[in-house]
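Provenance and format

Records in this collection were gathered into a single text stream. Each protein contributes a sequence line and a token line. The two records reproduced below are adjacent in the stream.
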Amino acid sequence: MGEQIHVALWPGISAVKHDPNSDIFNSVAEAAVRHHALAGQTFVINVMSTIDEDTVNALEKDLKFSNTPEFIVPGVGWPAIINPRDEIIGEPLTDKEGIVYAEINMEALIDIKHICDSVGHYARWDVVNLNLNLSKHIPYQLHKGLLSAKTPIEKSVKDQRKAQMRSIIELIKLEATTCSVLISILART
């Protein structure tokens, strides 16, 4: 069944006020763990470091930044528990240190497979497949029918690299064209 319970551990960045991104860090952590719960079809227990007054005082003393107020402040972060349906089942503690509790129903893992089936229709070999080539090869390979131009066999390394770059550019152009065609097909459906 794969991963069933994921424990995410984040640093207490929201307490570090000299960083302009600290104000949004709890929101970033929330978005990341909620996405992992749904995409990974797993429960997520989100843990964040707590910065208490004693830690702030110790850091000020050890790192000698007591003359820079608000460099780091007490804070909790966004510890919470999320179910595989992206629902908060253990309310986050944002104002005090503590333990988040929630009842986890493992049957929910089975139900979520009906919504996000990563081992069913996503695993169809005719839609997505992996080919493993165990032979020695160069970083790119031209296949008949993909490109009209042939790769010249040149003697100097410089000329070979130029030919490789031209071939890679042609492959990128082909891939971009293929993506455009796929997008237009998907847009029609």
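Adjacent record:
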Amino acid sequence: MMFSISCTILASCQYVTIAQDYGEWERVDVLHNRAMRYCLGVNKFAPVHALYGEMGWVMPRYGRWISMVRLWNRMISMNNDRLTKRLFLWDKPKCFNNWSSWIYEICTEFGLESNFQHELPIDISIFDSLMISRTETTWKDTIQFKPKLRTYVKYKINNYKTEDYIRTPLGRMHRPIFA
């Protein structure tokens, strides 16, 4: 069930956001949190950071960045005579409040400016591991200041991964017992 939710709903949400706006997508994040709550079988008052700790998913913002980098790689490998590539090449030098500027911000944040300047593809496996480590460090830094989760922090602080009980096929009635 967890695999089907992450493949259908979340992938569709990320697909919508990669070509539009780089900013925050609050409704997509809410849907992402709702999908995690559904998988775990917990109520709407369960802390979001505990959900991320249990599921081990990449935060939606970073998932959108991964999708944007995939689109960058497709644009770079495209033939120059295609209309899409021509529009991309026309848009790239402007690099102000457009898709190219958002990619440039992502590249500078991770030290990949040379890939942007020289129009080189970005290795997805390396970028994916960067996103996972960024999610983990963001999660660890944020969870320390949540007083509601002080007991949770004692047991989970160095263990950001999908828990084993989530991977086992349990019914919706049994999963909240473990969560």
